[in-house]
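Possible regression after last week's pipeline update?

I re-ran a chain I had predicted before the update to compare outputs. Posting the input and the new output here so someone can diff against the archived version. Not blocking, just want to make sure nothing changed silently.
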Amino acid sequence: MNSILMIVIAVVILLLVFVMFSLDDQEEEMDFLQEENDKPVAESEPVKKTGKDTSSEKPPEISRTAAENAAPVRPIKAEPVKLQETGGEEDLRMRIMLDQSLPLPTSSEEVKGVVAAVQIRFPEDIISPGDSFLKLISRAESLFEKEFSFPFSCYQSAQLDRVWFFDKDENRDDELFEALVVAFEVVSRFKKALESDSALRDAKARIAVGLSQGTMLKVKRGLSAEPSWIGKPVYMAETLAEAAGDFSIYVDEQIHKAALPLFDFREWKPIKMRSPLPALPLYELVGWNKPQEIAAYASDKEPFSRRAVAIAYRYLELDDMIKPLLELLTDSDEKVALEALETIKVIGSDQALGLLKRIFPEAQEADFRSAIIDAFASIGKTEVVPVILGSTKEGSWKVRLSAARALYALSGKDSLRHLEHLLEDSDGAVRACVNSIFYRETAKSQYLEALADLLHDLSVRARKAAADELLSMESDENLKLVVDGFADQEYELQKYILRKLETRKSKILYQCFLTIFKISGEKIRPRVVEAVRRAGLVS
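New output (post-update):
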């Protein structure tokens, strides 16, 4: 009995061992198959030939379950992607595409001044797709490319409109006066063009202008995109242009009141404007007042009217009626008197010399004394040189500065011996002026180096004066000095220098702007782009 039990146990053990070895063989086979699937085709074992050509046979179908469970074929590993360098062709292409959409606002600033909306008009049947209409637009817009009497900034508005901005800056006499004069010019220029341009005449091209003034918001949109303009003056100017008749100039009530001493207007009944504007009276600018009417406003009770007359004498031929202007030299309002002095300086009327010599000793304010000295220099009579010599030692830097300029204007190189003590003046603006005079007359590098050093002076006034003097000499070397010191200047001074650079005539001017663009901060770069456009360096 025990023997039988022992035999049974031995058989069971043998069966168990056999089963275990069978399972191991299956696992090894599965592992082998997996390795075969993982191998690339080139590394797999060659298929044994059986003597039967199986190349044309349809491969056996794989069941869905088997296909899903089969291990994926591993792709050959590719080289890593190489990043594109910035500044190349692809970078430029992408940036152009980005600029084709309206960028988001990046910053804003308040701008005070006058805005003119200039609207080109064509009949509805003329406006159609095609080259013929594009040529008409180009012919009409080319009339704006020629210089006007006064500068302005131009931007695209709706349809064929343009908005022209006459903002307050240091190069303007009076932004309202300048805007009104340019509005006259563009209308008369357009009318004259129709006489000689048969294409525009046959297309019945027309123009209208609307003007308003006040504070606007300039919203900047990156470097290359034009800014957006927001505010009631812009809205009002565009509305007035829409309401204006062909070849008409419409202004708002504020401009009408301020310009009344100089210009003639036709008043219209209040009409409903764009929503949400209420019904407003319109004023059409008709033309200049008669010279006698303009001169009569010199005794008006309103200071702004008298000041307008003082400005008008700079641009109108009123030499035979100089007396009202001379009376404004002693006006009770200092701003009016200073404006009259500025006009005397511009027109250089020697009829004012006697009066100026009488009022100069009594003048107390430094601004007024320096303005009289400027007028002396403009009139050009050397009899005032002894008076000016004493002013080179006055306490006010403004008076000393005007005296140095006047002496050089009246005496030329002979003035150097009287100005030598001002080379080390306590005020940087005076030093800049006098070093510039000595450099012009002697061409010695020490004076040019002094101007270059003043570009980095602690005083903003000194740096501004140095930039003025360097840019006034029309020298490429001087341009490079100003560009070199540009990045160190405050934002307002940078704007001023850009305005000065726009008028320079130099073969390296574009390179100067490009260098400034590279070395400057993001805030001033849109101004650099605008300056390049205004300088006419790009189309």
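Follow-up from reviewer: compared with the archived run. Residues 103-285 form a domain with the Alpha-Beta Plaits fold (CATH 3.30.70.1230). Marking as no regression found.
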